[in-house]
């Protein structure tokens, strides 16, 4: 009897270890006991990933295949930048990737076209529940980014896909980096540019957000809602940014965000600092070496008060194509790619910040300046979720106005801001 009990205990302990291991790697946990493949076999899947992540993603997919060697699975990873995923998929969903990485601002478009297959949950009665797994392992903000109208439509891939300040420490000191004025002055003295894409609404929104304007989702008609903001304070912020743009017109450069890193790579360097995103972190770090500096966005002086710049925080998500021939294998792979092991691999190789609660506390993340700057800025940002499609173009136009308008005045800024809000609220 003692031997039988000992054997049973050993079996139970082994089962616990296997469940814990599966849970860590993004596989079925205690909430996912059923057949995750639902009988699918001889499967061929196509995965879309951004160019910088293709090689790593293929390696992770190969690991998934090895872990399920009892199944015949073939996976090909193809390059497709997340910012263009919606346009490509909507063009012809039937030939799009079965599993694809995308940025959360495209959620509305993908949902309207019914392209996303919702994440399996307990209500599906499949014997496994990926939704519960995600809610256990990922941050609330990343889950919110993947949720629309109360339904989880995608798997969190990163904890933050936002932007922050990057700088060449031989040009901009850590002290300079604390204020926008300090950064611009340091770049001016060195005869190099400060780069940000002021005409891109993803970045230009900071001009309004820093003045206290907040997004409050959509109403029942799909019209963008705002907080009860002070128009005068928003105008104060817009004016402060515009004044700096014109004061440092020979230093400030409004160009594509990728020009920040490419300018730093030149010899001699043409860019000393700028705003860049987590997706470029590894590349910029390699180019700058020991002179690599990264920090949250600086403050800007508004009416005599140093005010923290507020940004928009984005998230990368993994979606499953609703027209996939192998729906359940596609979900199993998406869940795997969104798991702790894969998020750590991306954090180490690409400097992408994890959404996984365990991974984000790892030394891999804590020792990465870019990841920590991105996560720090995320605390000072508005989430890029539930935003009207009408938001983007008017805000980009406002950003260009602040940079390019000669002899700019407060009254002119106030008029342009009024147009911006009016155009955002126009229903499509």
What percentage of amino acids are in beta strands? 15-25%
> Into which percent range does the helicity of residues fall?
40-55%
CATH fold type of the largest domain: D-Maltodextrin-Binding Protein, domain 2
Distance between the termini: 74 Å
Rg, rounded, reads 23 Å
Structural shape: globular
Strand element count: 18
Structural class: alpha/beta
Q: Which regions have little confidence, pLDDT < 50, spanning 5+ residues?
A: 11-32
CATH class of the largest domain: Alpha Beta
Sequence-ordered SSE layout with sheet pairings:
Elements: H1 2-24, E1 43-49, H2 54-67, E2 73-79, H3 85-91, E3 99-103, H4 107-112, H5 130-137, H6 140-145, E4 147-148, E5 151-152, E6 155-156, E7 163-168, H7 180-190, E8 193-196, H8 201-209, E9 215-218, E10 224-226, H9 231-247, E11 252-254, H10 258-265, E12 271-277, H11 281-288, E13 292-295, E14 299-302, E15 305-308, E16 311-313, E17 316-320, H12 327-337, H13 340-350, H14 363-366, H15 369-378, E18 381-383, H16 392-404, H17 410-425
Parallel strand pairs: 1-2, 1-3, 8-11, 8-12, 16-18
Antiparallel strand pairs: 3-17, 4-5, 6-17, 7-12, 7-13, 9-10, 14-15
Helix pairs in contact: 8-16, 9-17, 10-11, 16-17
